[in-house]
Design brief:
The chain has about 260 residues and is of the alpha/beta class. It contains nine helices and ten strands.
């Protein structure tokens, strides 16, 4: 597989002296879905900003084999980022204008802009929302509009920061299905371990700014001892399944020990 990102000894210190990343090493391959999990303050969002070239860092971030050099690098257009708060990415009077903003800045014709807006809104399930005000939509709808603004740029890589946070159950389910349908390299920083389990090819555990574990979702998300070691809990669906399995075992044992049940 083609290597998209190669991160070497990546470190970042905030102006107040707090170190957010400490010697992170990471590789991400073309078409791969990677989930970055960890407790609050682990450095997940900071790592996404570093991968997007939005902050100065110590160490190296190689994108497609070349050093990524911040905002002025034209390859930045190949990397789309969805921030945790959709309102930071929505500022126009209509959904159409918000989604069209990026392609227009790239100099595309209005015909091409229209095609990209239509395609992006279809992907996020918001066809017909073009003339609506983004600020009058629900939080989940605004998040999908924000994603459409990124997809209209047709990035090669998508970075998502806590994409399911603050969503109600229905909106979360819709967004999870949307994530499963995206066919591009994506890296998701999330507390949502169910999202990581269901949509990622690989899970990276970040703790105190360091990568402390990496593996398949089943090897990481289902490992209670590993999760607890780094301040994480088994997701509810795993605890539920474990309870169901244990209940079934006890029930079966009860049946086998009761002659009347045979």
């Amino acid at each position: 597989m083609t290597k998209i990102f190669e991160v070497r000894s990546l470190s970042y210190t905030y102006p107040d002296g707090r170190q957010a990343l400490r010697g992170v090493n990471l590789e991400v391959f073309s078409g791969e879905a990677v989930a970055i999990i960890g407790p609050n303050g682990a450095g997940k969002s900071t790592l996404l900003l570093a991968l997007a070239g939005l902050i100065p860092v110590e160490g190296e971030v190689l994108y497609k084999g070349r050093h990524l050099n911040g905002l002025k690098d034209p390859r930045r257009l190949e990397i789309g980022i969805l921030f945790q708060d959709p309102d930071t990415q929505l500022f126009s009077l209509t959904v159409y204008e918000d989604v069209a903003f990026g392609p227009r800045q790239m100099g595309f014709s209005e015909e091409e802009v229209h095609r990209r807006v239509k395609e992006a809104l279809e992907k996020v399930g918001l066809s017909g929302f073009e003339e609506r005000s983004p600020h009058h939509l629900s939080f989940g709808e605004r998040r999908r509009v924000a994603l459409a603004t990124v997809l209209s740029m047709q990035p090669d890589v998508l970075l998502l920061d806590e994409p399911t946070s603050n969503l109600d159950p229905r909106a979360r389910k819709q967004f999870l299905e949307l994530m499963k349908g995206l066919r591009l390299t994506r890296i998701v920083a999330t507390h949502d371990l169910e999202l990581a389990y269901e949509t990622a090819d690989r899970v990276v555990v970040l703790y105190q700014g360091k990568v402390v574990a990496c593996g398949r979702p089943s090897d990481v998300i289902l490992n209670e001892k590993l999760l607890k070691s780094y301040g994480l809990e088994l997701p509810l669906f795993v605890r539920y399944l474990k309870g169901e399995v244990e209940y079934a075992r006890k029930d079966k044992a009860s049946l086998l020990s009761t002659p009347d049940a045979l």
